[in-house]
């Protein structure tokens, strides 16, 4: 599981990547059980992006895979996706923008972003994970 300091390092790396891109975002770090460890909303990021980043990170942590994988899986099954979202109290967010955080093959948690396009969110998160010395699998 990620420590609070490790989560803050991921947030800082994501913030730096987002600043380089010129797109203010929100970022959430979840533990492997989908509990929030740390959250940041950059100046200028949409207010709702903090909630969306948490949902994306929760989804990546739940499946140990990028949230984009659930987006692709759920596209032909919108009713099922809605049912899972309802069953999880709105946490399941099958949209591109979050990645798992692994170390030596162990899932430590997930980092989710929101504020740019889904692909920008995911690219920034993936770069932050790499910058902190972790992997996506």
Automatic annotation (TrEMBL):
Coiled coil: none annotated. It holds the Pfam family HbpS-like. It comes from the Bacteria. InterPro entries: GlcG_carb_metab_protein, PduO/GlcC-like, PduO/GlcC-like_sf. This is Heme-binding protein. It comes from Modestobacter caceresii.
């Amino acid at each position: 599981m990620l420590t609070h300091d490790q989560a803050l390092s991921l947030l800082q790396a994501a913030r730096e990547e987002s600043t380089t891109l010129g797109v203010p975002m929100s970022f959430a770090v979840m533990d492997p059980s989908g509990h929030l460890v740390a959250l940041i909303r950059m100046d200028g990021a949409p207010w709702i992006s903090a909630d969306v980043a948490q949902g994306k990170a929760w989804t990546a942590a739940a499946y140990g895979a990028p949230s984009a994988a659930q987006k692709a899986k759920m596209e032909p099954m919108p009713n099922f996706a809605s049912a899972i979202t309802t069953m999880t109290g709105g946490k399941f967010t099958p949209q591109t923008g979050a990645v798992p955080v692994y170390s030596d093959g162990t899932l430590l948690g997930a980092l989710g972003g929101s504020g740019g396009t889904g692909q920008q969110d995911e690219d920034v998160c993936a770069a932050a994970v790499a910058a902190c010395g972790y992997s996506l699998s």
